[in-house]
Amino acid sequence: MTSELVYGRRPVRELLRGPREVVELWATERALRAEPWLREAGVRLQRKPERELTAEAGTADHQGVLARADPYRYADAYELASGPAPLLAVLDSVTDPRNLGAVIRSAEGAGASGVVLPAHNTARVTPAVCRASAGAVEHLPVAVVKNLARYLGEVKSQHLWLWAAEGGAEKTMWQADLSGGVAFVFGAEGKGLRPLVRRTCDDSVAIPLAGRVESLNVSVAAALLLYEA
Q: Is the Cα dihedral 100, 101, 106, 110 positive or negative?
């Protein structure tokens, strides 16, 4: 079976705590001195110089720790929406892996049911996303759907309300009724939601801004709305 790479101290530690099987672990001497848990991981551990980890990871942002594990398994998007009171973050055309990772980290911390992504023109779970999520991706379901607008139209109901996150919405997050099942739908920065995805949503909600900037980073917006719900 093909293995996938995960790098960074916290991402690898969370990988070891998660459901994926870890098949190999690399660490520098410096990382081994700083992180005693590496010796207790129960996985074949190899000491490697910094340059070898950088070459393997394709980046110097590995903090001296690298692992190979079973491929990430995406969740079923319909199952995520079928719970008694689901809380979902739905991303439309968010292509920056750092933004996706940060959204996943916030969603996991807020106790969300999961994150839903379209199949095309979006970031997917990669080593960079694992790193940006600080390992939260190992504990939060992420699902991919072929047609995002169709999926949203099929799952929305009186038990799951779809809120488009928009700066110009009439209702702020303090005025909107965010009780019960909620899915927040976020668009790409600058472009916003695609028209069909926006029309599928039940309503829109805004985060009030007191400064001069017109919008927030999508990961910050997701964190605020998910915690408010």
A: positive
Spatial separation of the C-alpha atoms in residues 39 and 10, rounded to whole Å: 15
d(CA 81, CA 84): 9
Count of domains for the chain? 2
186 Rama sector, left if φ>0, alpha if ψ -120 to 50, beta otherwise: beta
Q: Tell me the average pLDDT across 119-125.
A: 94
pTM score = 0.93
Domain at 62, CATH number? 3.30.1330.30
Q: Rounded to the nearest 10 degrees, how much is the dihedral formed by the CA atoms of 225, 85, 204, 158?
A: -170
pLDDT in tens, 3-45: 999 999 999 999 999 999 999 999 999 999 999 999 998 899 9
**How many other CB atoms are found less than 10 A from the CB of residue 22?**
19
Q: Assess whether 44 and 151 both reside in one domain.
A: no
Asked if residue 66 lies in contact with residue 57, where contact means CB atoms within 8 angstroms, the answer is yes
123 and 192 in a single domain? The answer is yes
Residue 46: how many CB atoms within 10 A of its CB? 11
Range of the domain at 87: 77-228
Pair 17, 52 in one domain: yes
